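Hi R.,

Here's the chain you asked about this morning:
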Amino acid sequence: MSEGFKPYKHHTSYNSEQMIEKSKDFYHQMDLRRSLRFFSDKDVPLEVMENIIMTASTAPSGAHKQPWTFCLIGSDALKSKIREAAEKEEYENYNGRMSDEWLEDLKAFGTDWHKEFLEIAPYLIVMFKKSYDLNEDGSKSKNYYVSESVGIAAGMLITAIHQAGLVTLTHTPSPMNFLADLLERPVNEKAFLLLPVGYPAENAEVPDIKRKAMDEVLIKYL
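And the predicted structure, written out as tokens:
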């Protein structure tokens, strides 16, 4: 065996019928996932949130550098500060920064600069990406394919949230520098994504929109 390696013993094989059934079931389950803006304030066990985040942390990354930090916020005071800062940036976006075309595309979602969900949802997760690591002596250690790695982890995080019976929304108030300031993150960390997490509100609604069909997203070379 090669030095620094160990046997891989955790693979489970399925026959063709089982693979088709499992893949179809998972697809149908994930096809029910929706981005929600209406949250309940019902509490979520902390261990569930920890498990969700640790699932995301299993994502592949360039040179296994794992260039991410997940900040979990449950403090009402801190959520309020985040909402205030996010709405300040979003107000500017909706009143000058966004193009007319962008604003027109957003009309189907009924969204505006008000972000009540940032206080209502029991938890917020802020994902930070690290272009480099800081060593104990203050020197820098380069990371690779950072945006790609963190993007994959974000997808796994959203999947884990749905699998746990919870809902979320990918929120990207731009610019997001205020998140690093409020959470007192080091200079090598930049905010990548903000996700409220919790249960849907009883009166939750989602836009009546459709996903693209297979022939619109899949091109086969067989």
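The two ends are 36 Å apart (CA to CA).

Let me know if you need anything else.
M.
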